[in-house]
């Protein structure tokens, strides 16, 4: 456990070296709430979304967690291309501890970055009560580990920089736009038909639904089923990432 925390702390300290990137992300996420909220609040169909600021704010919690946890994959990809694998494998820690440390480091980045937006959500949407706080904490932890694992897995699929960047970008924007963060399920169904069901089962959509329920925006959420689905996503992504990362660390050539 101590070795896992040492590796995770190392990755967390490196996170703060991206000050300008962090500042840009914070501005972008706040702009999503303020600009999109003010702009679309008077343009949307009020029967679908009575208050767009309250609607989009829980989704920004998912987005903030996704962006910050996803950053760990970029560094893992750089390490593989620069062939520092032998150094990592020579560290006095087991390979399981090494991989768990990277997962934890990515997840901690997401949780710390998201914390400020949780406070903002309480001010704009409402304060979770009792059991709802457990849902918020559970959702944040599971989604942060899922996105950390997904990012590491994508960054280890290939050592080719261009192909690696393309894969990460495609997955990033698919998850970003094909979710219920900016649009309600009825609008997605009107535009994409049966594909809306697939959108509702993406990890970002599931997490956003749980946040909307926890912050009191909408009661029409099956918390138990969505929590189990999010746990399943996290387990699959972490397992795939674990084997892909170790395989790329140990293979030759």
TrEMBL record:
Residues 20-248 form the ABC transmembrane type-2 domain. It is found in: Membrane. It comes from the Archaea. InterPro entries: ABC2_TM (IPR013525), ABC2_TM_bact-type (IPR047817), ABC_2_transport (IPR000412), Nod_factor_ABC_transporter (IPR051784). The keyword Membrane applies. Keywords: Membrane, Transmembrane, Transmembrane helix. GO terms for cellular component: ATP-binding cassette (ABC) transporter complex. Pfam families: ABC2_membrane (PF01061). Signal peptide: none annotated. This is ABC-2 type transporter. It comes from Thermogladius calderae (strain DSM 22663 / VKM B-2946 / 1633).
């Amino acid at each position: 456990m101590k070795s896992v925390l040492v590796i995770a702390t190392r990755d967390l300290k490196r996170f703060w070296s991206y000050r300008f990137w962090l500042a840009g992300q914070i501005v972008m996420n706040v702009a999503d709430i303020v600009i999109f909220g003010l702009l679309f609040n008077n343009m949307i169909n009020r029967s679908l979304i009575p208050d767009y600021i309250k609607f989009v704010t829980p989704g920004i919690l998912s987005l903030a967690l996704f962006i910050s946890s996803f950053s760990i994959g970029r560094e893992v990809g750089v390490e593989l291309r620069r062939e520092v694998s032998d150094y990592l494998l020579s560290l006095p820690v087991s390979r399981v501890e090494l991989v768990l440390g990277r997962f934890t480091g990515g997840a901690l980045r997401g949780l710390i970055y998201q914390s400020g937006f949780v406070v903002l959500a309480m001010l704009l949407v409402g304060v979770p009560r009792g059991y709802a706080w457990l849902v918020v904490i559970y959702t944040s932890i599971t989604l942060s580990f899922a996105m950390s694992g997904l990012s590491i897995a994508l960054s280890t699929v290939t050592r080719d920089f261009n192909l690696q960047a393309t894969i990460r970008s495609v997955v990033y924007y698919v998850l970003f736009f094909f979710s219920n963060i900016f649009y309600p399920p009825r609008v997605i169904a009107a535009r994409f038909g049966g594909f809306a069901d697939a959108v509702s089962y993406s990890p970002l959509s599931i997490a956003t639904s749980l946040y909307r329920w926890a912050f009191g925006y909408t009661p029409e959420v099956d918390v138990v089923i969505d929590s189990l689905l999010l746990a399943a996503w996290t387990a699959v992504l972490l397992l795939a990432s674990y084997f892909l990362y170790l395989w790329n660390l140990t293979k030759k050539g």
